From TrEMBL:
Residues 63-78 have a biased composition (Basic and acidic residues). This is Uncharacterized protein. Residues 1-78 are annotated as: Disordered. Residues 1-11, 24-33, 48-62 have a biased composition (Low complexity). It comes from Pleuronectes platessa (European plaice). It comes from the Eukaryota.
Amino acid sequence: MTIDSSQSSSSLDVNSLEEKRSEQSSPSSEVSSGGNKRLKQSTPAVVSSNGSKRSKQSSSSEVSKEHENSASSDRRAREKIEKIQAEVRFKMYASVLSDKLVTRIYKKAKVSCTDDDTRRHLLERIWAEVKDIDSPFIPKRILDMDIFKELCKKWPSPEMLMSSLLGRDPELEISIISILRRRLCKKPGFISSFRAGISSFFRR
């Protein structure tokens, strides 16, 4: 009977030790499982933060591209408007020049000028030959007097000039156009601009 009791007590001791070990091991398992849960929860957060960063970068790049596209389109529209305005000013200058040149020729020939067809024809001929000039230099004053003086070297009298003008002489029209193109394609220097300003002042 004594042996049985000792055996039973030893078995109880073993069981109690095993229970204590299991109790000690169970928190570690719980901790590890909890750590795994935390890792699983933290991993999507990192992924989501990286995804948000990429989305922000892509959105900022798209916004910058939109700004660049709008700026380039605005620049093209501005250049187009400036080109149209320059062409309108150039044609207006050619119109005033042809009108004043015809008036000067008639005035020097002492004839009243009422021929609108001649004015219109001369303007069409001049504009057809000078409109292709790239970035023409448009002087502040009208060059009708300068052209008239150069024409007088070939046509000695205003009457001859008027006759050639009314007859739509191709030689006269070519001479007018060549003189005008030479003046529009060449920018004068400071001295010539100063002399032109002084002469135009004394002609007033």
